[in-house]
Amino acid sequence: MSEYVDDEGRREPRVGRTVSNQPISTGNEAPMPSAARAAAANKRRHHTPRARRMSLSLTRVDAWSVAKVTFLLSVAGGIIQIVAAALLWLVLNMAGVFDQVTQIVSSTGLDSSGFNLADVLSLSTVLSTVTILAIIGVVLFTLLATIFALLYNVVSSLVGGVHVTLGDD
């Protein structure tokens, strides 16, 4: 059995501990009879440990970390928007929606200058517009989340924050 030295310089044997921080065995106990050992093992086996609960309060949020996380999530959302717009445009183009809308407009007699919806809503135009909107969204979402984090810190200092109870179930 190994030993360790505590803060006051005493040498003590190192003892294995259970989840409840009770010693498993110190090696100094008298040997137990086999029936008592079996009863103790049976008792330990059927004992259900209680779930630990801890009450915490979220009293402060670091605004810089909120800004970094929000920025990265916004960039990911912007990329998703651009890819989704490109896929949607390709699906609509393959389905012939642009051509059909052009035919409907020309059949109404409003086609005075050779209107073609596929030229107006070309892939490059759609992707450019969605990219600009995604960049504006990244900037706005990052700024708003950072401002909300700062506001949360102010309100939290007044009311004590959000109280959370965590359980070890």
Order of helices and strands: EEHEHHHHE
Number of strands: 4
**Helix/strand class:** mainly alpha
**What average pLDDT do the residues reach?**
81
How far the N terminus sits from the C terminus, by CA atoms, comes to: 34 Å
Largest sheet: 2 strands, antiparallel
User: What is the overall silhouette?
Assistant: elongated
Radius of gyration from the alpha-carbon trace, in angstroms: 34 Å
Domain DUF3566: 52-168
Protein name: DUF3566 domain-containing protein
Biased composition (Polar residues): 18-28
Region (Disordered): 1-50
Describe this structure in words.
By secondary structure, the protein is mainly α. It has a domain at 82-108 and 121-169. The protein contains five helices and four strands, in the order ββαβααααβ. The protein has helices at 34-46, 63-95, 97-107, 117-120, 123-159; strands spanning 3-5, 11-13, 52-58, 162-168. The two termini are 34 Å apart. This is DUF3566 domain-containing protein. The chain crosses the membrane at residues 69-92, 126-152. Residues 18-28 have a biased composition (Polar residues).
Topology:
Layout: E1 3-5, E2 11-13, H1 34-46, E3 52-58, H2 63-95, H3 97-107, H4 117-120, H5 123-159, E4 162-168
Antiparallel strand pairs: 1-2, 3-4
Q: What can be said about this structure in brief?
A:
Helix content is 58%, strand content 12%.
Keywords:
about 170 residues; mainly alpha; two-stranded antiparallel ribbon; 5 helices; 4 strands; about 60% helix; elongated
